Amino acid sequence: MSDKVYNVLFLCTGNSARSIMAEALLNRDGEGRFRAYSAGSQPKGEVHPAAIELLKRNSFNTDDLRSKSWDEFAESDAPVLDFVFTVCDNAAGETCPVWPGQPMSAHWGIEDPAAVEGEGQQTAFERALFYLRNRISLFIALPIGSIDTMSLQHRLGDIGRSDGATTS
Predict the structure, then answer these.
(1) Model confidence pLDDT, tens digit, residues 52-68
(2) pLDDT tens-place string over residues 2-42
(3) N or C: which end of the chain has fewer CB within 10 A?
(4) Could you tell me if 47 and 67 are in contact, meaning their C-beta atoms sit under 8 angstroms apart?
(5) Alpha carbon distance 18, 62 (integer Å)
(6) Beta strand 104-107 pairing with 83-86
(7) Can you give the pTM of this predicted structure?
(8) Annotated domain spans of the chain
(9) Which CATH code fits 6-160?
């Protein structure tokens, strides 16, 4: 078993909901094997209140979660990334910065719960968390240190096409 901690960046346009929830999930469920971050191409500047409420209700620590630009992770002093996952179709179609470390990437798009207003919003956030949890569980279970790069890339793509996937 390797002692390597893998750095993972989750990207979305606004970095207010899906990517934030993915960061919280992987940091908690990754059991020290992963260090997750999130960012956006056009960050909203604040985490969506419904995301914070849902995470707190599910016993996640939300103290360090903040909406931030992906530019922070392209700086010379940024963590070297092993994986970059887009969780919204808009971010998947944008030209990303050059990431230090040449990370593997995949698109894990799911519907934007922040786009839902009114009565169905809580359900939309719960559904997004459910799909993210499923993807992250599959990711955590991968034998990352013992499979070849091509197989790993294929499996990352398969995870992104699992239940709840959007099309870009």
Answers:
(1) 999 999 999 999 999 99
(2) 589 999 999 999 999 999 999 999 999 998 899 999 999 99
(3) N
(4) yes
(5) 14
(6) parallel
(7) 0.92
(8) 6-160
(9) 3.40.50.2300
